[in-house]
DNA sequence: GTTCTAGAAC
DNA sequence: GTTCTAGAAC
């Protein structure tokens, strides 16, 4: 049986956390300089991004009047589409029901870090309307259930929320414990994306959709990622990521 | 989103 | 000299 959305298999590159892989850490770069932020700020484009460069069976995609036809190698092969693929992988799925699926973040920024994704293709919060309200509430509820099921006995605090300008396509709710004890947390952008207003509380997003019918974000979000590093527990300023990470240890409940 | 690395910061 | 950050990745 053919999966219409994902007609070909994309292999995930396993991250080199395995010491055995150390010797061939060098790998081809697959860089793409397209601006992610601008991309995320645009409206959803239904139908776009489902074709592949090497798909013999799907020859004719309705050509979008001349200009920005899908000329470049992108779409599903592009890193920003990775969630669409991960969420389909049973090995990644921690929970699923008719509306949503939960996977572990591939590069967790804390001891517990999950993503709740709807099966429905919603590119980002920009595309969210009141008709998605119940879905957003369900995503939140499922997030809380996953916490209860997998970290219920821990005393860790959790937050649920969305990045104001996500890098990855497909709406995803972050469910993340507040220890931020993870080797994948490496830079200022990582920290500030979860510890400034760049992180939009799920509850606030739900209320915004309820009241305004859509999600709007204040200007200057990219600048928030460059703000000085401040401890989320005691507000202390730290001069570098290594020093922040060392500081965080004193708040651990371990 | 990550990796890699030049050169700034210490 | 070493640590650390920040920008490119065709």
TrEMBL record:
One Pfam entry name: DcpS_C
Biased composition (Basic and acidic residues): 65-76
Subcellular location: Nucleus, Nucleolus; Nucleus, Nucleoplasm
HIT domain mapped to chain residues: 80-185
GO cellular component, one term: nucleoplasm
Domain of life: Eukaryota
Motif Histidine triad motif location, chain numbering: 170-174
SUPFAM superfamilies: HIT-like
Enzyme class: hydrolase
Principal subcellular localisation of the protein: nucleus
EC number: 3.6.1.71, 3.6.1.72
Any GO MF annotation of the entry: DNA 5'-adenosine monophosphate hydrolase activity
Keywords on record: DNA damage, DNA repair, DNA-binding, Hydrolase, Metal-binding, Nucleus, Zinc, Zinc-finger
InterPro entries: Histidine_triad_CS, HIT-like, HIT-like_sf, Znf-C2HE, Znf_C2H2_type
Region (Disordered) location: 13-81
Catalytic activity: a 3'-end 2'-deoxyribonucleotide-3'-diphospho-5'-guanosine-DNA + H2O = a 3'-end 2'-deoxyribonucleotide 3'-phosphate-DNA + GMP + 2 H(+); a 5'-end adenosine-5'-diphospho-5'-2'-deoxyribonucleoside-DNA + H2O = a 5'-end 5'-phospho-2'-deoxyribonucleoside-DNA + AMP + 2 H(+); a 5'-end adenosine-5'-diphospho-5'-ribonucleoside-2'-deoxyribonucleotide-DNA + H2O = a 5'-end 5'-phospho-ribonucleoside-2'-deoxyribonucleotide-DNA + AMP + 2 H(+)
GO biological process: DNA repair
Function: DNA-binding protein involved in single-strand DNA break repair, double-strand DNA break repair and base excision repair. Resolves abortive DNA ligation intermediates formed either at base excision sites, or when DNA ligases attempt to repair non-ligatable breaks induced by reactive oxygen species. Catalyzes the release of adenylate groups covalently linked to 5'-phosphate termini, resulting in the production of 5'-phosphate termini that can be efficiently rejoined.
Protein name: Aprataxin
Annotated organism of origin: Daubentonia madagascariensis (Aye-aye)
Source lineage: Eukaryota, Metazoa, Chordata, Craniata, Vertebrata
